[in-house]
Amino acid sequence: MTTNGQYPRALAVSGLTVRYGATTALDRVDLDLAAGSVTGLIGMNGSGKSTFFKALMGLVRPTAGRIEMFGGAPERARASGQVAYAPQSEEIDWTFPLSVADVVAMGRYPHCGRSRRLRAPDRVIVAESMERVGLTGLAGRQIGALSGGQRKRAFVARALAQEADLILLDEPFSGVDRATQQVLSNLLRELAAAGAAVLVSTHDLDGLPELCDSAALLQRRLVVHAAPEEVLRPENLARAFHTSELS
Ligand SMILES: Nc1ncnc2c1ncn2[C@@H]1O[C@H](COP(=O)(O)OP(=O)(O)OP(=O)(O)O)[C@@H](O)[C@H]1O
């Protein structure tokens, strides 16, 4: 927190445009995130949500626009471990010979220097992170042998272990049951209460008011960023969810 009690801006995006060849995935998107808040990122399939996360993580190159994290270059924030990212499940190689504990331990790497050797306090944080998502009993299991919901929890645990200030989660709720969704939602609220800025994409519009302080509605462009109740007004949803474009 700053001295005047206000949480600083964690992320400032302006004019962000990403094209894949002839496809414009994001078109001049402006979005700011305050520390200490949960923001829902919503929009129909193909509206640019994953591309937005990838641009923030430097995984796709913007055609135009500016990204700032904590008032500085995103490269610096990412290298220092201030930014945690859980990609969509499809982006992850589940055949990789890693256990749940290995994946969660990766969240500590930015804190371990080049050796990547975890010290005792790091191991405590890894164990606590698995505990918080209810995966302690599966710590030794290969990640490919987890259920869909357990996989989501493993990557949320990695983000927890990282103790990042900006947490980016691409569809952490897809394919998870109600109880797990509630556990993860509560965790995200706790992280925000501790000062993190959390950006979470979701197709669960009903859960938005409980989960989020604000919601950003994407349709290549940012349609609206406001309180969840405002974003969920039928006239706003109609601007972004054109059923005729669904395919
Ligand atoms: N690597 C790529 N090459 C070409 N086009 C791509 C690529 N990745 C995404 N796109 C296109 O960019 C647009 C935005 O895709 P993106 O994956 O960001 O959407 P999304 O909102 O995350 O969708 P979903 O809800 O289905 O996950 C889509 O039209 C998609 O087909």
From TrEMBL:
SMART domains: AAA. The keyword Chloroplast does not apply. SUPFAM superfamilies: P-loop containing nucleoside triphosphate hydrolases (SSF52540). Coiled coil: none annotated. Gene3D superfamilies: P-loop containing nucleotide triphosphate hydrolases (3.40.50.300). One of its GO terms (molecular function) is ATP binding. Residues 11-245 form the ABC transporter domain. PANTHER family: IRON TRANSPORT SYSTEM ATP-BINDING PROTEIN HI_0361-RELATED, METAL TRANSPORT SYSTEM ATP-BINDING PROTEIN TM_0124-RELATED. Keywords: ATP-binding, Nucleotide-binding, Transport. This is ABC-type Mn2+/Zn2+ transport system ATPase subunit. Belongs to the ABC transporter superfamily. It comes from the Bacteria. InterPro entries: AAA+_ATPase, ABC_transporter-like_ATP-bd, ABC_transporter-like_CS, Metal_Ion_Import_ABC, P-loop_NTPase.
